[in-house]
Write a structure and sequence with these properties.
By secondary structure, the chain is of the alpha+beta class. Helices cover 19% and strands 35% of the residues. The chain has 2 helices and 8 strands. The protein is globular and about 40 Å long. This is Flowering-promoting factor 1-like protein 3. Belongs to the FPF1 family.
């Protein structure tokens, strides 16, 4: 993992590439790709359709997040409400929880 460690209000956290939200540690822009269709995920509407087809359901507990849960697992996907804040860490979370369905690529 790379990025910058930020200490604020007694809490330390790792911020990946604070300059650009869609760049990974390589400095290149990242995109999430749905492998069966080879389609780049360009919006939450597109992502939601793909996740629904894989058995994911929406959770509406937190108004600041888009959350998805799959009944057959303990997995929960939590995404920022604003697609412009969709970062590589969110993309990799989706990839890990949906093996062979999604991939993160450099553009």
């Amino acid at each position: 993992m790379s990025g910058v460690w930020v200490f604020k209000n007694g809490v330390i956290r790792l911020v990946e590439n604070p300059g650009d939200s869609c760049q990974g540690s390589s400095g290149r822009k990242k995109v999430l790709v749905h492998l069966p269709s080879d389609e780049v995920i360009t919006s939450y509407a597109v992502l939601e359709r793909k996740l629904f087809s894989l058995g994911w359901e929406r959770y509406y507990d937190d108004p600041d997040l888009l959350q998805f849960h799959k009944r057959s697992t303990v997995h929960l996907i939590s995404l920022p409400k604003d697609f412009n804040k969709f970062k590589p860490m969110h993309m990799f979370d989706i990839v890990v929880k949906n093996r062979n369905e999604f991939e993160v690529r450099d553009v």
